[in-house]
Amino acid sequence: MNATSSHTLTESQPIIDHLNEILKHEWTGVQQYSQAAFIVEGLMRELYAPKFLEDATESFGHAKLVGEKIAALGGVPTVLRNEVKQSRDVRELVENALAFESKAVEMYSAAIELAEEHADRSLVIFLEDILAQEQEGVDEYSKLLRETPAQQGEVKTATSRAA
Ligand SMILES: [Fe+2]
Q1: pTM for the full model?
Q2: How many whole angstroms from 101 Cα to the centroid of ligand 1?
Q3: Which residues place a Cβ less than 5 A from the ion ligand 1?
Q4: Where are the chain's structural domains?
Q5: How far is the CA of 20 from the centre of ligand 1 (A)?
Q6: pLDDT digits (tens, 9 = 90+) for 45-96
């Protein structure tokens, strides 16, 4: 459904509320990642400052999409954010980033369930596109934090597996 506005505002309210929680999370991302880029210290600064700025930009991109969607559904996009986790330590920043991306995956997944209950196919697709990007964030930050022991991490070729 929902080609134009087949749902009333009351029907859309639970979705609008949930999207606003997501928007709050994305606004948090804009500030948390920007702050991380500003203050990250140490030898890895040169690598991580641009990465965190890129993530801040991604959060803003998502905030923009979600804010527009809330307005289209007749709601008022929030200007609030959650608490920003701060650190100068790269590992801690990466752990914060993983927690942030994992929460985003949970929130978009729950929103998709809600949109499915409302039989709102286009909203499901809209949210799925963003969810895929959030999952990429989880995958990437998980890899950055992973330290597989050498033997276990050894990449086996087809030949060596057969031997
Ligand atoms: Fe996001």
Answers
A1: 0.87
A2: 7
A3: 62, 104
A4: 12-146
A5: 13
A6: 999 999 999 999 999 999 999 999 999 999 999 999 999 999 999 999 999 9
